[in-house]
């Protein structure tokens, strides 16, 4: 069973989130906060809807202690990495400069198509200037070095996920991820909420703005080639991604001296259409599930993007491309930082297989759903603790 992450809904007005929450009320007082149950070394922050510890702070003190892993983070043995067969994963490498070169485009396009059927690939020669990548990496790294009280100026509000905090906590009994994040809505630009954009380091906003523009260009390019690979009109996907909604999740994974007993990000698929991931430092940790069920490490190539197909693209492509389950493990002694750019479809879109792909005797493999209902179902799945999201739409 797959679990789907929160990439798809950040640009919903907070009131829509609250509406959905109200439909299925949850207890907003965390059991973690009950007297005597608060982790002694942790400072609690409110994230999403349930207050949980700040992992970066907790890890700093806990790694120096001899205490066992706090139970909120302790994974069941079968989930822990030590008990899984993990092999070195070779994911396809696609060269954007070759896609753009008329002499090489056909061969590279075939590689792109095959890569999307597998769900994960690395994109090299993507044209984002080194300076833009380096500035974004530097400022993201500097942000996480700031004292907690400075970072918390940008903390999440109780009814939303934008800002500094942790990934979505949907139940008091779920195991927590060993990570903190900064989640920002980047595009459409008019929907940016600057309250959550760090003003420290001083160049942060400018660096992220330029990084957002450059990655949006890369995604436009990919969408054109994907449309060609799918055999539909070249601008077909670009039109669906009108305005190119883009969210950024920057994740900080502190080291954990018992790394095999915790999880940086739980197993999930992306609810978005296309994700571009940048390794902000060179610590590996991302793993994806291969067809035979094993977890495979992604070995990042310097300056490459790790691109993954999300649930929406799997549906639009009528299953031609695959949204693959992935997770993040943490390092025993090194911090890890990543920046994921989630690309969405326009809010007015009906999500379903492109009619061109099922016309002429083809079979629709997914039910169509409005974007709003897609998001509603995503929330409902989270809140009642069920894991499947994409499976709900499969015919
Ligand atoms: O940090 C990573 O490598 C991936 C993060 C991720 O999959 C997520 O946040 O959805």
UniProtKB/TrEMBL annotation:
SUPFAM superfamilies: Clavaminate synthase-like (SSF51197). It comes from the Eukaryota. Keywords: Iron, Metal-binding, Oxidoreductase. One of its GO terms (molecular function) is metal ion binding. InterPro entries: DIOX_N (IPR026992), IPNS-like_FE2OG_OXY (IPR044861), IPNS-like_sf (IPR027443), Oxoglu/Fe-dep_dioxygenase_dom (IPR005123), Plant_2OG-oxidoreductases (IPR050295). Residues 244-345 form the Fe2OG dioxygenase domain. Belongs to the iron/ascorbate-dependent oxidoreductase family. PANTHER family: OXOGLUTARATE/IRON-DEPENDENT DIOXYGENASE. This is Fe2OG dioxygenase domain-containing protein. The lineage of its organism: Eukaryota, Viridiplantae, Streptophyta, Embryophyta, Tracheophyta.
């Amino acid at each position: 069973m797959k679990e789907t992450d929160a990439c798809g809904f950040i640009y919903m007005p907070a009131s829509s989130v609250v509406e959905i929450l109200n439909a299925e009320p949850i207890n907003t007082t965390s059991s973690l906060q009950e007297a005597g149950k608060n982790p002694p070394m942790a400072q609690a922050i409110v994230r999403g809807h349930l207050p949980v510890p700040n992992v970066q702070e907790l890890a700093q003190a806990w790694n120096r202690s001899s205490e066992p892993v706090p139970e909120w983070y302790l994974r069941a043995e079968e989930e822990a990495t030590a008990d899984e067969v993990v092999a070195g994963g070779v994911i396809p490498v696609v060269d954007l400069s070759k896609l753009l070169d008329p002499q090489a485009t056909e061969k590279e396009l075939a590689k792109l198509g095959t890569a999307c059927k597998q769900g994960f690939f690395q994109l090299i020669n993507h044209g984002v200037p080194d300076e833009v990548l380096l500035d974004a990496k530097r400022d993201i790294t500097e942000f996480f070095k700031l004292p907690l009280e400075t970072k918390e100026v940008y903390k999440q509000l109780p009814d939303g996920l934008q800002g500094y905090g942790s990934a979505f906590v949907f139940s008091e009994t779920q195991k927590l991820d060993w990570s903190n994040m900064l989640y920002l809505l980047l595009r459409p630009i008019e929907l940016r909420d600057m309250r959550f954009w760090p003003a420290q380091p001083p160049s942060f906003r400018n660096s992220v703005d330029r990084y957002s523009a450059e990655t949006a260009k890369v995604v436009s390019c990919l969408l054109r080639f994907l449309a060609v690979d799918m055999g539909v009109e070249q601008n077909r996907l670009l039109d669906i991604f009108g305005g190119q909604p883009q969210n950024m999740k920057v994740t900080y994974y502190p080291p954990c001296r018992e790394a095999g007993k915790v999880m940086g990000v739980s197993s999930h698929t992306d609810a978005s259409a296309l994700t571009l991931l940048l390794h902000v430092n060179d610590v590996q940790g991302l793993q994806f599930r291969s067809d035979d069920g094993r977890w495979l490490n992604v070995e990042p190539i310097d300056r490459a993007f790790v691109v993954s197909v999300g649930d929406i693209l799997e549906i639009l492509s009528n299953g031609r491309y695959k949204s693959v389950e992935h997770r993040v493990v943490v390092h025993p002694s090194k911090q890890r930082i990543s920046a994921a750019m989630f690309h969405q479809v326009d809010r007015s879109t009906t999500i379903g297989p492109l009619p061109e792909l099922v016309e002429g005797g083809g079979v629709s493999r997914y039910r169509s759903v409005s974007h709003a209902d897609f998001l509603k179902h995503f929330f409902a799945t989270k809140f009642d603790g069920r894991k499947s999201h994409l499976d709900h739409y499969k015919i």
